[in-house]
Structures are given as C-alpha cells and as structure tokens.
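Researcher: We're teaching a course module on how sequence relates to structure. For the next exercise, students receive a sequence and then see the predicted structure as tokens, so they can try to spot secondary structure elements on their own. Here is the exercise chain.
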Amino acid sequence: MRNFILGTIAAFILVFTFLYFFNQIQSNSQTLEASQLIADQIKNTGKLVVNEGHFSEVITYKNAKKFYLDILTIEKKAVVVVNAKVSISYDLRQINHSIDQDTKTIVLSAIPSPEIDINPTIKYHHLEEDFLNPFTSEDHNLIQKQVKKQLLASIKKSSMLQNSQNRLLSELNQIYILTNSLGWTLKYNNTPISNKNFNEAFEL
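Model: And here is the predicted structure for the students to work with:
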C-alpha cells in the first residue's frame, strides 16, 4: 500500500512537471510567434508615401547691377510660373524598435521626419535682360532655390503636411492594434500607448 501511494505521488509529480515544462515551451513559442508578427508588421510597413499634391506659384525674380561709378543701374527680371508635384513620405524603416519578450513590450523610438519631395516645372515669362547684365547659370540656380523655398513655405501653410501626419498616425495605429490584440504593450520611448493617449503620445 505504501509503495502504491509513493508511486502515485511520484507519477503525479512527473505529470505535473511534464505539464509545467510543456506549458512553458508552448508559452515561449507563442511569445516568439507574437514578437515575430509585430516585427514583421513594422518591417513590412516600409517606405510609406502618405500624400501627394500639386502646387502652383508665380515668382518675380529681379537682379540689378550698377555701372559707371554706380551712376547707371541695369536691372534684369523675369516672371516665373511654377507648377510642382509634391509628395510627402515617411521612411518607417528608420523607426528604431526593441522587443522585450520577458515583459511582452515593444518600444518604438525615433519616428522619422517627413521627407518632402518637390518636382517643379518652371516656365519663364516676360524675361527682361541687357547685354551688360544678362541672365546666367547663376541666376537660374538662384531662381531654383527661390522656387523651392517658396513652395516649401506654401506646403507648410497648407493642410498637406497635417494630412500626411494623420496618415502616419493611422499606420502606427495598425502596429498598436496588432500589439494590443496579442496582449503586448506598445511604448513610444518611455510612454505606454493606449487608446486614450495615442495621438498625444505620438505628437509629431
């Protein structure tokens, strides 16, 4: 009888030990699968072109030079009509992230800045110059710089940049939804992300 009881206890301990280690292995496997799913979600987001638009600008370029002891001033000028295709993208491959499998936490850091790509088409109108002060390649370079500067200012004043940020937040929200559904915690730097603080935490 005593041997039977000892055998039963030993069998119980053996079964308990087996189930414990089986559950641990299964839990570790699920944790690895979850972390891989989240890592793939971040990786597959890739380079996201979030917004495209067109801008038109009219720019007046002037340049004056003085001659003959500054008595004579000769000016050259041009009216420049610009049509530009603009795209704003976020390279989410640049997101730094770390995965802590023990605490089931994903930490994102260093959300990339927007990349603003401007492709202008420039047409010259009412070009006025003088043989003493003709248009040169330097003038065209200055016009190019002025065009991009003015276009960039217009882009920043428009809703395009804000719309792009909203699209970025939408992509980040997909990472949050997946993380949350797997029972993991998503952090941006040291801030845990939740539905309530999502927009504030990722304030751009």
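Model: If you want an answer key for the exercise: Confidence is low (pLDDT under 50) at residues 2-30. The longest helix spans residues 2-45.
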